[in-house]
Each structure stands twice: as C-alpha cells, then as structure tokens.
Amino acid sequence: MPEALTGVKDEAAEAEAKVVFTPSGRRGTFPVGTNLLQAARDLGVDLDSVCGGRGICGRCQITISTGRFAKFGLESAAGHLSAFSANEQRYKDRRGLAEERRLGCHATVQGDLVIDVPPDSQVHKQVVRKRAEVRDITVNPAVRLHYVEVEKPDMHHPTGDFERLATALREQWGLGELESDVRILQKLQKSLREGDWKATVAIHRKERIIAIWPGFRGKAYGLAYDVGSTTVAAHLADLSTGEVVASVGVMNPQIRFGEDLMSRVSYAMMNPGGDIELTEAVREAVNRLVADAAAEAGIAADDILNATFVGNPIMHHLLLGIDPVELGGAPFALATNRAQTLWASEIGLAVNPDARVYFLPCIAGHVGADAAGVILSETPYLSDDTVLIVDVGTNAEIVLGNRERILAASSPTGPAFEGAQIVCGQRAAPGAIERVRIDPETLEARVRVIGCDLWSDEPGFDAATGDTGVTGICGSGIIEALAEMYLAGLIRPDGTIDGGLGGRTDRLQAEDRTFSYRLYRAGERDIRIYQVDVRAIQLAKAALYAGARLLMDRLRIAAPDRIVLAGAFGTHIEPKYAMILGMIPDCALDKVTSAGNAAGTGATIALLDQAARDEIERVVRGIEKVETAVEPEFQRHFVDAMALPHATADYPHLSRQVTLPARLADDGGAVAESGGRRRGRRRR
Amino acid sequence: MPEALTGVKDEAAEAEAKVVFTPSGRRGTFPVGTNLLQAARDLGVDLDSVCGGRGICGRCQITISTGRFAKFGLESAAGHLSAFSANEQRYKDRRGLAEERRLGCHATVQGDLVIDVPPDSQVHKQVVRKRAEVRDITVNPAVRLHYVEVEKPDMHHPTGDFERLATALREQWGLGELESDVRILQKLQKSLREGDWKATVAIHRKERIIAIWPGFRGKAYGLAYDVGSTTVAAHLADLSTGEVVASVGVMNPQIRFGEDLMSRVSYAMMNPGGDIELTEAVREAVNRLVADAAAEAGIAADDILNATFVGNPIMHHLLLGIDPVELGGAPFALATNRAQTLWASEIGLAVNPDARVYFLPCIAGHVGADAAGVILSETPYLSDDTVLIVDVGTNAEIVLGNRERILAASSPTGPAFEGAQIVCGQRAAPGAIERVRIDPETLEARVRVIGCDLWSDEPGFDAATGDTGVTGICGSGIIEALAEMYLAGLIRPDGTIDGGLGGRTDRLQAEDRTFSYRLYRAGERDIRIYQVDVRAIQLAKAALYAGARLLMDRLRIAAPDRIVLAGAFGTHIEPKYAMILGMIPDCALDKVTSAGNAAGTGATIALLDQAARDEIERVVRGIEKVETAVEPEFQRHFVDAMALPHATADYPHLSRQVTLPARLADDGGAVAESGGRRRGRRRR
User: At A30, which helix (H) or strand (E)?
Assistant: First the structure.
C-alpha cells in the first residue's frame, strides 16, 4: 500500500530528532529510537567499536553535551536521550563507566541532541607529541580486532565455517574479500564452537585474518623495534589507544662478534655460518625484549599481533636472515630496498606466531630503515623549511630537504663520536666525562660526569662520584672538550694542540712531537686529550660536514633553515659545541633541536598508523640517494672541513653568540665578520 | 634528422620480408635480420622460450615449411632463412637438435618464409587425452621458469638486488609487480653473483617469485596428488611439456587407525592428539611419494615446484592440519570450501620448500576436492548432454548436470561395494573373484579371479591360480554375482535368495531361515553368497540410486543422457551389471563409460593448467549442493530402490539388451514392456 494512504510516513516524520556530534560538528535527523553508534556511522562520525554495537567493548562511549544545545539552536536535553539501559548497567558493573558516560550503541535518540565524542572514543585517536615541529600520531593500526557473530552451519545450505565467518565480517563490519592462512583454518572450527558462534578476529590491513579467539577480546598490542648496533630498544603499544605501555632495551649481543658493524660483517665473511650466528644473536635480543615488554605490561606475548622494525641496513638484513656480506664492501648492494611485511614466525619472533611484522624500507646500502624511521618521525617531506637531519653512529646518516625534495646520504664518520679511537674515550656510562668548561684566562678545566650533577670544582664532587670516580670521556664530552680547547686557544684552527701555551698551564704536556692536555686528574691517572684524539674527531666531523655539504650543494643552499640532531649522540651533545667544531653547518641555534630516538619514534608511528607505512614507502621511493664514496666533490669538501670550524664556510649565526678565534692566517679576517653577508644566498 | 631526408626508411622498406607461421596462420612483414622468436612474439604466435632468446633453452625450435610456400603465394625458400649460426651449432653439440630444426631466436628472416611451430615448441601445448568425451589438457602451468640477465649494482644509482631483478623481469619478460618471500631475499644476492648476474627464477601465477637459481635452468616439475582413504597416488609431470614422467602410489598408512574414514574420525575424537597422528600419517605417505616419484624420474625433490591435491573432505582437512572432527557428524561443516594455495612447507611437503601447493575446493561436507577433481576432468559444465557422474567409495559422490546447471550430492553407501560387510568379501587383489557367470538352466556358476585370464571351468585354471588359489570375492565380483543370480532367478526382485530352486542345484544351502549360494569351492572352503550379502549390496545400491534420483528430480529428468563411472570401483564393474542391480538409472549402455581415476586426472589438469584452477573454483561456487540426509524424498527413493533393479523406475535401454525377470507380483507387467513409453519424459 502506498505510504501516503496509510499515514505511516507522516507518523515517522513526527518521530524524528536532530543529532549534532561534536567535535566533528556533523549533524543529521534520525528516527526516534536510533542508537547513537548507528547515527554516528551514518554520518561518518569517528566513533569506535570492537564489538559492533553489542554493549561489550565500551569503545563507543559518548556524553550528552547539555550546555551546547542553544549553540546549535536546539531545545534543552531533558529526556532526549533514552534512560540508562540494563546493558549499560551490566557494562558499568563489570568494567566501570564514568557518571556522565553512556554507551553509544545502547543510548538511543529520543529528542534533539548534541553528543560529544570524547577523544578516547574516536577510532582515529591522536597521540599528542610534545615537540612543536612534529605532527601528532594518528592511531590507525594495521591490525584491528572485530567481534563478530557467525551463522551456524546449515545442512540445507552447506558452506564452510570460513565462508560464513567472511560473510559475517562483510555484513557486520563492511569488510571485503578476506584471505587467511592455513593456521587460521586449523583453529577456526574450535574457536567458533567454543565461543558459541561468537568470536573476535584480528584483521591485518582489512585484507587478512591473522588471529581468531572464541568470544569477545578487546585488546591487541604491537611492538616497535629500533635495532641498533649497540642497543636494541622496543616500545610496546596498545593498538587501540596508541598508548605506549612498556619501553624496554637491551645491549645488542652481537657485540661479542665485533664492537662495530664492519667487524661483525668481517666475522660473517671469515667464518662459515657466521651470518647465521649474527642473525641468531640479534633475534635473541629481540625476543628477550618481547618477554621483558610483556612482563612489564602484564600481558602475554601471544597478545602481541604486530611489530615494526627499523635498523641500519646490516641489522635489517641480519634480522631477515639475509647474509650482510654485500653491505661490507662496494658497491654496497642491498638485497632489497622495499618495505617488507612478513609473519612473525619467519624471523622467529616469539610473539603471537600469526602476528605480522613490518620492516620499514632501507634507502641505500648505508642509509637504512633507521633513516626511514627518522624521516617518518621528523617529516621533512611536509616541511616548508629546509631541514638537515643528522643521525650519528659509525656512519652518519644525513637527510636534507623539504616538501619538494629530499636527499639522503651517509658519511663514514667512524666510531670516534662514540668515544672509540679516543685515547681516554669510553662509552656513555657513569663516570664518563660528558661536560667540559675551560677558562680561557687560566686554561683550567672543570668537568661533569654522567651520574653526578656537580662540576669537578664544586665541593663534594669526589664523594658524589664515589667508587666509580672519573673513568674516561664519552662522545659528547669529547665534543665539548675540543670546542672549549679551541675557544681557549689550546687548539688552533688547523687542529694542532698549541704547545706554545705551555708556559701558562701545567696541563699541557709534550708527547713526542705533539702535545696533550689534561682534562682531569683521577687519582694516579690523567684523563687527557691527545693530538690523535683531535685528529680522529677532525676526520669524523669533516666527513659529517662534507656529507651534509654535498646535499646542500645539490639543493643549492648555503645553510639549512633548521637542523635536527637525531639518535643518542644527537640527544647528548650541545648544538653550540657541535657547531663550533664545524660538525654541522651554521644555523640559528634555536633552530637546532634534538629529536631523541627519532628512528624508534618512526617505528612506533608505523606501528600505530598503517597509513604512515604507505607514506614512508612513497617518500623513500622519491628520495634522491647520494653516495658520498663516488662523489668527486666529497673529497674536496672533506679536506675543507678538517679545519675548525671550517676552512671557508661561514658561521654567521654562531658568531653572534660565540666569539670564535680568528681563522687560519692565510684565510684573512675572522669568520664572524664575513659570514652575515652570505647567509641564505644560493650557492650556484 | 627526419627519416625522409636520410633515405633510411626506404632502404628498410626494401629489406623486408613476409613471414607466415603455421599452424596458427598468423603472418606479418619484418625487416630482414629479425629473428623468428621476435617475429613470433610480435604476431602473438605461441612460441615458447625460457632463456628469452639467448640460444640456451632450445624451447623455440621451428622448422621451415618449404612445401607450403606456394599455398601462401610466396617464392621458394632457398636462402630465405639465415645460415645455421654458431650459437645453434653450440646448442646442437651440447643438447642435440634434429636436422630440420632451427632455434627461432637465432634463425633470422632473409626473405619470405613459411615457418612451422611444432607442438613441442608451443607455449600452450596440448596434452591429448584418449577419451572422446573429454577435452585435451592445455599446458599452462602456474609455475614458469624465466631466465633473466640482471644489471649489476651501481653506486651512482643505488637500488636493491631484488628491485633490479624485478626490473629485468619486467623488461625482458613483460612481468608486472612481483612479490617474493623473505626466503628468496635470503638466497638472492648469492644466486645473482654466482651466476654472474644471470639467473633463472620460478614465478607463480605471474605474481610471486618462488625460487631462484644461478644461471640457466630449464626444467621444473609438479606433483598431482589424489589422496584417498585407502591409497594415495601421485603423478609427477614436467611442467614445460605436460608429460607425466612418473606415477606412484602407496597405501594410506592411516589404515592402522581405522579401515574406513569414520573410524579414523572416531579415533581422532577419542584420542587427544589423534588428529595430529592422522595428519602425520597421511603426510608421511605423501612424502614417501615425493621420494618415489623423484627417484623414478631421476630428478631431485628440490626440482618439484608445484603440487596439487584432491581428496575427500576428511583427507583434505587432515592434510591441511585441520581436525576433521566436525566432518564426523551432522551438520558436517567444512572448515572452508574455498580452494587453498599455500607453501609446501606449511603442510610439511618435502619438495622444494618454496614450492606452492594448491588444494582444489571441497564442495560440501561429504563432497570433497576429489569430486571437484572429477568434475574438472569430466567437465559436465561444458556438456550439452546431461551427465551423471558417480564415484563410489564409502560415500558415493554423485554429480549430475550439464552446461546450464550442476548438482552434487553424496550418499552413504557404506563399504559394501569395496567388499567389506560381505561374508566372503575381500579387497581387489590376486585370488579375488572379479567375474561371475551363472547358467540360468543349470544354475551352475563359473568365475574368474584377479591375476588369471582363465574361467574356472576352463582347463588349467587351478594351475594358473597357483598357490594363491581363489581367496574371496571383490567389489566388482559381488556386483556380477548378484546380477547373474538375479537374472538366473536365484534372487527374487525383493532381494530374497530363492530357496525354492534347491531342487535344481546343490549350490543352494539353507542357513537358519535364509539361503546361501555357492559360487566356488576352494578346496575345503566354499565361497558363497549369503542373504546378508545381498541385503548389504541392496542397501548400498539403494543409497546410490536414491542420491542420483534426488538430483534427477531436481533437474526434472527421468534419466541422464550419459553416465560416467569414476574411481577404481567404476573402472572395474561392468556397466550392464551395475544397471541390472539398479545401482544406476537406465541409460544406453554405450553411453555409460568408465573414467578411471578421474579425481587424479583433475588434480593433474589443475597442475598443468592454472586456468583450470580458476575454472573449477568458479564451477564449484555455482554447484547446487544437495544434502541427502535432510531431503525428505531421499528416504522414499531409498525404499523404492531396494528392489532389483527398482520397484518403480523403468529400464527401457537395458531391457532391450537383457531379459529382466518379471517385477514383484504387485507391480503388474514386466519392466521391459512398461519402460519404453516413459523414456525421456520430464518427471514434474
């Protein structure tokens, strides 16, 4: 019968109400009785749900926004939302529900409403980051849980359990064609029957069912790994909230095969099966972190359904079980520069064996997935400013660019920045000198060590450093020591320790034909800076600068707008000292920031936001790779960069804050005077 | 410079020649000097190549078809093909080349030519089948080999080895985006360097690199499995020629857990881990066949890169490691009814671990991938005739249909047809009675046994059967014995052994209140047919007929146009006797054929022709499944089908060749008279 004759349509029209959702501002008119999850879905409002509206998961919590009715021209709210239902009460009794909160799937529209979706109820939640220059992380994980109710088998219409599950997922969740592994088929029938035809499945990228459990399951976790040559670190995150629930780290046990990367590759080359030993060692560390993170968060390893990895190319290859021998010499060919998605079991990762694992792409033979992670974290490809990002390890990974163009290179800095090749050098650990000040008048030095807040000339320093005492000097300490020596005139612009000042201090001491300077007397033992130390740092910083300079030449800029220091070393050095030594080009000091473990942050972003994976893969494909070893200009830049801070480059910003010693005699006037005029000019 | 000014174009036009390819008849004009592989590719002529035109693989052999020049209006051939090249001579010396054969990649066009592509040089070769009613098999395997030359890494343009391989495959083979497993990445770098940047890759369905070898490799093999409850059989095929190079079989070692399928499922249900034992047992058999087939063909198991499987649902599930418990009782839910493609390693198949494995789809809980194999082999979906296909095992799988509609069912025949539940029954083996004739006048029987060509009343029979003697009666023997007894009046249409004839023969003997008939006296022991035997066969044949009849009802036909008897049992029984007993509906006897192991043939087709996989998946999705257990009509059909040949159904075709005894008294006139009129009429 036509509606006009029955009057049904008119009645329906009377029983409708307006609903406005905040903060999105989306609005619509719905029949009285519509639940708010349904209304939100109809309007495309970002309201979460795992159980699909069955009052189990509590993800669709909303509040009524009584105060804002007038703003939207609506009447006040009394009675406009249905009464608190038995289902909501059951949820509240079992799992708790704040006073003003309602379950969107059970609260129904009874009159005009303004409904607020709190941040924790949004599907695409934001994880807010503290630094202004980087964007927040959207929680949009590759692995999602879906609660589903499956039809029982019917002999009149025989279909497989899997096909009925897929149908239910299509009908209840709008999911398309789904694949699955045989391991799911092996568990499927039992899970469906144990849960009385209710189950929760984990789905990877809307394509593949990777896990199934009987009944409802609300939590899934992921691990983001940063696998460094020295340390392996991981963050365990709740994939629904994006919250990091545990952060763990361990020394890379590969150190027993060689302190630095190249000696490990040599080990693999010299010893049959050595690559397998290295692979087993790093996988052992990675699995230890699974256990540690799960224990710290109080979850089972089996609850971990996704993992992401960043690391340098050698760690990347070894984790994947690829012999890194080709990365040990020219032409440094990667096995692949694509991102990899595989099963946890394929790399022996002791999480849920059906978990998926994602490796960010490597960029080139020396520029790894760790650099991809840094780029994903720092997003130079979204920046109007031209950003220079340096991540210093045995190789410095250098990225330069902006939203139009990104270049990447690596430079062979060697391990000097990490305290190796330095006579009194040591790893960053309690007792290591990390801060140095030298009085330019007296040429006296004072130091601070890791694990103690006092300077060495302050009362109580000896007591505070205790049994450990002062044991050596770490990477950031060397930078400061050399920069302070340079500012005090103890080191000349060409890097020579100036023995001619020996009359003014007993800290200088002749060593064969060179000199050394005593930073600190630790009991019987002197901690000194030797000429070889200065040379080692000069070589390292010249390599770093020359790499950055090559990229700047390509972009035809004299200086970047911003500099980001990434990695542990970047976190600890003082930008001013790095610039005084000429490690990095000139830049306003307030535009030099430390990104901390940006590679690890990149891994976490890829874990929480599947769109970020596509994004970094796209960006990496577009990156221009510069191989410093075959660039003829590199050698010239390197030689020029040996001087402190540089033979020719200007440091106008730095010169405004620091009085730099005059340049080498043949160079003419001081750097501070000549610099300002050239700032911002294009080089070619 | 424009061509018109240089005259180059005119010169080129002068130096062109016509080429006709047979048998395709494709023709075109090519510059002199074009090689014939290139010409064939340009014209879309089906000319094979693995090495991509490098004179290594010898797949592109052609002959000059001198005699047919006039037919195509071309001049004679002298000098129209380039002289035999050094490359061809090298190939000939190394691998042999028939006198008239040339390598298409090195023989070049010098004048007008008619070129014949012999069948073994075609990409899509045909494997010719002997039976008229089935189509030939196209060789179009899922796994193909491609020889490829890869660019070396270049530090100026750093890319991964995998990406350069993919580029080479795109440029040299026109392949698109390719995936690979991490296992390929683990072998990739070594393979490329060992082969000096020449390699052969195996590619699955143009999508995924599954294997790589240094240098050239010309052969790949596949295994097609038919996994039955009693025996497991496999064909090893050369994936390039389609030739079956080894056929092997083994008893299913699961028999130690139970003779029939249901007792094995019970074992799995009663014993924790029993399903795993069953899985291990069948996988052990499957792996034994890998070794046997490889040994028989003289190849390595590692050369086997693809495998296909058919089997009943329980074997299908067990092979996949899925507990078959749900298939042991109503509602007989399959874990999945989709085809499965997975890694050999996932089912522990001891071929190349990177081989892909394909399971044909199951149709329903009792109608397995074996039935899908039968359908693929017999192609009822391409038939204008309506075909009934029966494959008899413990369950009979029944398929009925034509190009418009296909129905499938299974019927619980029990193991009587296999000689079980028969007092003197035994498996088909030497000494088992397989043929029986009974003289209707004397009521004397003569028999023939497996392994002996003589009848028992012929001289030398005892000597010929030797030490084995006559040991029992197998499935096909029982069918003949009962049919002959029925024709001789020894069995009444209701299945009763007629003791009233005892006066005419001493072979009848009273047993409590029933009678038995002696088929043969083997020394001290009689081989007899008992009343219980007749009842067991009546139950089995009634189930089979009733299942077929349900499907005929659905299609509204009284009889099929053709009948195909599949499986070992179908191969050995005489269609006439099957019809006399009413196992199958009436049909012209010359339209009843035996398909042999059609399920295994289906597995072989799916192995050799990837398009057949898509085809059977599409067909299976469209099949109407009929579950006999829930069809109310089944019971009535079953009861009617207990009589010999049937209480009501007509056998007009049969009656023309065999004089059937009169029907039961209450049925009126003889079958032969009433039948003809109803033939071909629609039932509803």
Answer: strand A27-31
Alpha-carbon distance of A645 to A656, in angstroms, equals: 15
β-strand pairing of A61-64 with A16-22: unpaired
* Mean pLDDT across A302-322: 97
Cβ of A160 within 8 Å of Cβ of B336? The answer is yes
Give the H/E segment covering residue A297: helix A274-297
Task: Report H helices in A146-223.
Answer: 161-173, 182-194
B640-681, pLDDT tens digit by residue? Answer: 999 999 999 999 999 999 999 987 554 444 333 333 333 333
Residues, chain A, total? 684
Is B153's CB within 8 Å of A342's CB? no
Identify which has the larger pLDDT, B662 or B365: B365
DSSP bridge pairs for B227? B232, B311
Set of chain A residues whose Cβ sits within 8 Å of the Cβ of B158: 331-334, 337, 364-365, 625, 627
Flag if A362 and B160 touch (Cβ within 8 Å): yes
Please, which residues have CB within 8 angstroms of residue B485's CB and are 6 or more apart in sequence?
Answer: B438, B491, B497, B517, B529
Which helix (H) or strand (E) segment holds residue B245: the answer is strand B244-251
* Inter-chain residue contact B321 with A155, CB threshold 8 Å: no
Strand bridging mode B406-411 / B624-627: parallel
- Contact flag A337-B365 (C-beta cutoff 8 Å): no
A90: its two tokens? 């059951």
Query: Distance, in angstroms, between A584 CA and closest chain B CA?
Result: 25
Distance CA B599, CA B378 (A): 9
pLDDT, residue A13, reads: 52
Cβ <8 Å between B337 and A189: no
Residue B424's Cβ-count burial label (10 Å; 0-12, 13-18, 19+) is: buried
Please state the φ and ψ torsions of residue B310, each to the nearest 5 degrees. -125, 160
Compute the nearest-CA separation of B643 from chain A (Å): 29
Instruction: Tell me the sheet residues that pair with B203.
Output: B144, B209
**Of the candidates B154, B323, B338, which has its C-beta nearest A160's C-beta?**
B338
Check pLDDT > 80 for residue B2.
Answer: no
- Two structure tokens written together for A159: 């279909």
Task: For residue A407, give the amino acid letter.
Answer: L
Which two structure tokens, joined as six digits, stand for B429? Answer: 């083996």
pTM of the model: 0.87
Which of A182, A323, A336 lies nearest to residue B340, judging by beta carbons?
A182
Task: Report the distance separating Cα A560 and Cα A388, nearest Å.
Answer: 6
- Name the band, by pLDDT with cuts 50, 70 and 90, for residue B14: low
DSSP string, A458-518: STTHHHHHTTT---EE-HHHHHHHHHHHHHTTSB-TTS-B-GGGGGT-TTEEEETTEEEEE
CA distance B458 to B450: 15
- Tens of pLDDT, residue by residue over B102-116, are 999 999 999 999 999
Which residues of chain A make contact with B152, given a CB cutoff of 8 A? Answer: 331
- Find the helix or strand (DSSP H, E) in which B221 lies: strand B221-227
Dist CA A544 CA A584 (whole Å): 7
pLDDT digits (tens, 9 = 90+) for B207-265: 999 999 999 999 999 999 999 988 999 999 999 999 999 999 999 999 899 878 888 99
